[in-house]
């Protein structure tokens, strides 16, 4: 991914205010396991992470807001975006097309921002290939298959046919669990949210992401030279 080469990242100007590389925090799960629920809690509690708003051809659900939950586009518009390489990744899911527009992520990552992705395993594989070092993939499992179906029914957004299709696809989605760095079971929402938040905090502190560390440590050592130096 040429545009994300090291020279595009923030300058290493040392402490205070150590600069940090932005990260791509991915939440995937079978439909209904709760990734949107966890994503919303994370976004509400952490002003330093921004939602990657996908484009999709699927119809808007009640309560969804254009530009906030998704960019709702028609198929020709989506196909044109594919042709123009406007997506960082894209995939067909449940008979509709979904993709991550490049521009928002590109500009934000250059400013050291973190982005939250609610995408499926296909998109995760594509992002992993393009920006492995910057990707933090987290997989959310339901506590049981019965509970997964119960949640899809309780959500009340899909008819029985669509729910059956989502349950059928759950098997394929779950089969990709081992491609993720972290796996969390969403039994209790609050516990799951805390676990996901801890993963995010720990990943932010990874040495490689703290681009100001080299000069900061150099300065620490310069101010404490070995005896006789
Ligand atoms: N731990 C939980 N216990 C009970 N209900 C939950 C839990 N987590 C989420 N839910 C509920 O389950 C339903 C599905 O959750 P959500 O929409 O977040 O799933 P999703 O993984 O984002 O699904 P999709 O991929 O279809 O968007 C929602 O009604 C949500 O309120
Ligand atoms: N590869 C991508 N998958 C995406 C994207 N946006 C959403 N998704 C996934 O699609 C399904 C269905 O979502 P829903 O909102 O219609 O229930 C779910 O698994 C999402 O994670 C995307 O940009 N790329």
UniProtKB/TrEMBL annotation:
Keywords: ATP-binding, Cytoplasm, Kinase, Nucleotide-binding, Transferase. GO terms for molecular function: ATP binding; GMP kinase activity. The keyword Nucleotide-binding applies. One of its GO terms (cellular component) is cytosol. HAMAP family: Guanylate_kinase (MF_00328). Essential for recycling GMP and indirectly, cGMP. This is Guanylate kinase. The gene is gmk.
């Amino acid at each position: 991914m040429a545009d994300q080469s090291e020279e595009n990242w923030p300058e290493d100007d040392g402490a205070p205010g150590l600069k940090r590389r932005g990260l791509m925090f991915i939440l995937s799960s079978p439909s209904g396991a709760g990734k949107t629920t966890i994503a919303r809690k994370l976004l509400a509690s952490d002003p330093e992470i921004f939602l990657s708003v996908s484009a999709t051809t699927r119809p808007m659900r009640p309560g969804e807001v254009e530009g906030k939950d998704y960019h709702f586009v028609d198929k020709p518009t989506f196909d044109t975006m594919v042709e123009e390489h406007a997506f960082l990744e894209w995939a067909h899911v449940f008979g509709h097309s979904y993709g991550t527009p490049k521009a928002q992520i590109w500009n934000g990552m250059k400013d050291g921002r973190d982005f939250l992705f609610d995408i499926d395993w296909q998109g995760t594989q594509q992002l992993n290939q393009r920006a492995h070092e910057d990707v933090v993939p987290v997989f959310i499992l339901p506590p049981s298959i019965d509970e997964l179906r119960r949640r899809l029914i309780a959500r009340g957004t899909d008819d029985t046919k669509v729910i059956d299709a989502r349950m059928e696809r759950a098997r394929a989605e779950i089969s990709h669990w081992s491609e993720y760095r972290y796996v969390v079971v969403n039994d209790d929402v609050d516990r799951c949210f805390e676990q996901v938040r801890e993963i995010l905090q720990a990943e932010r502190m990874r040495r490689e992401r703290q681009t100001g560390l080299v000069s900061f440590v150099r300065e620490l050592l310069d101010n404490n030279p070995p005896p006789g130096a």
